[in-house]
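User: I've been trying to design a sequence by hand for this structure and keep getting stuck. Would you show me what you'd pick, starting by listing the structure so we're on the same page?

Assistant: Good idea, let's start from the same input. This is the structure you sent:
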């Protein structure tokens, strides 16, 4: 399966400009199976939920559906959704036929005020697509390994992020840790550039394999589309040869 990571310089709170940017990047990089966008790809990471939130039937989701249908590939990333005055940072996986799988961000970034404006997600979500099982996660979720613990129920983790350069070392280290401990591919997609609050983002978008090795990395501090192939048979062979998941501790999640 071919996956394209869109490391973008998201235009601050300008949805039409971001729609155009994403459309251009997809057109310039055809024939992928999945296009992965950063967190809050339509607006940048911000808490103006009343101004920027929209329904599942809104313009941003319509654009995602159009792009998926036109490219024949899944398009996924997070945006601010408004469910009757309840706001979520929602990771949507939109298939070419228009079907949508939704994950609402579980771990809200308290330091950035996200807990004051957004509702916490409650459900862990795995989407099946073209023979792969994909766990959907958003940014700050990366710091909480229990939430992403593999129970032999997924093959790839997608982390979409707005992760500032001041904490880049943590981003790099935790992506590798999640791949190794879960014997899974990990796809991390971050933005670049400066947002409207003055934060700088230097990227770090990458694909990491189940051994913790880089399959591919985007260059820092520039817009870039990285396309890589995942190998499900290599993953299965590795898990059969080294079945560490069989010895994992049993646990249950409490709300």
């Amino acid at each position: 399966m071919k996956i394209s990571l869109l490391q973008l310089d998201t235009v601050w709170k300008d949805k039409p400009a971001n729609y155009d940017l994403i459309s251009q990047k997809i057109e310039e990089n055809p024939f992928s199976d999945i296009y992965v966008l950063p967190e809050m790809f339509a607006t940048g990471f911000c808490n103006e939920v009343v101004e920027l939130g929209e329904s599942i039937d809104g313009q941003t989701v319509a654009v995602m559906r159009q792009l998926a249908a036109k490219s024949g590939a899944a398009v996924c990333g997070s945006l601010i959704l408004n469910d009757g005055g309840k706001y979520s940072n929602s990771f949507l996986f939109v298939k070419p036929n228009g079907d949508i799988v939704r994950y609402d961000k579980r771990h809200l970034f308290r330091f950035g005020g996200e807990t004051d404006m957004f509702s916490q997600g409650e459900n862990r979500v795995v989407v099946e697509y073209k023979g792969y099982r994909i766990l959907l996660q958003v940014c700050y979720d990366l710091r909480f390994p229990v939430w992403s613990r593999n129970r032999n129920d997924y093959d790839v983790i997608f982390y979409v992020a707005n992760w500032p350069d001041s904490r880049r070392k943590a981003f790099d280290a935790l992506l590798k840790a999640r791949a190794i401990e879960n014997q899974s591919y990990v796809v991390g997609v971050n933005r670049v550039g400066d947002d409207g609050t003055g934060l700088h983002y230097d990227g770090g978008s990458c694909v990491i394999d189940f051994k913790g090795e880089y399959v591919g990395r985007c260059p820092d501090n520039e817009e870039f589309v990285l396309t890589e192939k995942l190998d499900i048979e290599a993953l299965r062979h590795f898990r059969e040869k080294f079945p560490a998941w069989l010895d994992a501790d049993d646990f249950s999640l409490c709300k």
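That's my pick for every position. To get oriented when you compare it with your attempt: The chain has one domain: 2-247. The mean pLDDT is 96.
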